[in-house]
Amino acid sequence: MLVANVVTFTFLPDGVASDVLFGLSIAFVPIAAGVAILRHRLYDIDRLINRTLVYAALTAVLGTVYAGAVLVLGLFGGVGGDLPSWVVAGATLAVAALFQPARRRIQAVVDRRFNRRRYDAARTVEAFSARLRDQIELDTLSAELLAGVEQTLEPTTVSLWLRPSALRS
């Protein structure tokens, strides 16, 4: 696209030919993206979008926290002049400590909003594990296990094999 634009604006006079070449260069952007997706097997583009959303939001949040911490702690160091090194170190440590908790929370928000299937599957597994602690009847447990597998994984068929009761210890 860059080469087409350079050729268009350098060698071709203004007119229909330059407009057509410029339009074709713009039209090749989605085609190039499609070729890249197919060539590099980026079929899970939703995963790429998910991570982009999470890390963009995380960068914005941590950048804001860092700037706020430097401004607030900088007031204690005196107005004007250079910031003391402890202010920068404290803000950096605060942001480093917040990275994983903030990433987990932002990931949960993005999953809840954009990846609903994964979020619902996680909630189903959590509900099943809570019922598993209270349930002792094997028939009820096996029915709930099969129902949980059908809800989360959506397989075509589900079966559960248990050893005969005489062989169980």
Task: Please tell me about this protein's structure.
The protein is mainly alpha-helical and 169 residues long. Helix content is 78%, strand content 0%. It is built from 6 helices and no strands. The chain has helices at residues 2-11, 16-39, 45-76, 85-114, 116-134, 138-153. Helix 1 (2-11) packs antiparallel against helix 2, helix 3 (45-76) packs antiparallel against helix 4 and helix 4 (85-114) crosses helix 5 (116-134).
Listing every helix as H and every strand as E from the N terminus to the C terminus, the arrangement reads HHHHHH
* Biggest sheet features: none
Q: How many extended strands?
A: 0
Uncertain stretches of 5 or more adjacent residues: none
Separate helix tally: 6
Beta content? under 5%
Shape assignment:
flat
N-to-C CA distance: 71 Å
Mean pLDDT: 80
What are the salient characteristics of this protein?
single chain, mainly alpha, 169 residues, flat, 0% strand
List the helices and strands and how they pair.
Blueprint: H1 2-11, H2 16-39, H3 45-76, H4 85-114, H5 116-134, H6 138-153
Helix pairs in contact: 1-2, 3-4, 4-5, 5-6
Give a brief description.
This protein is mainly α and 169 residues long.
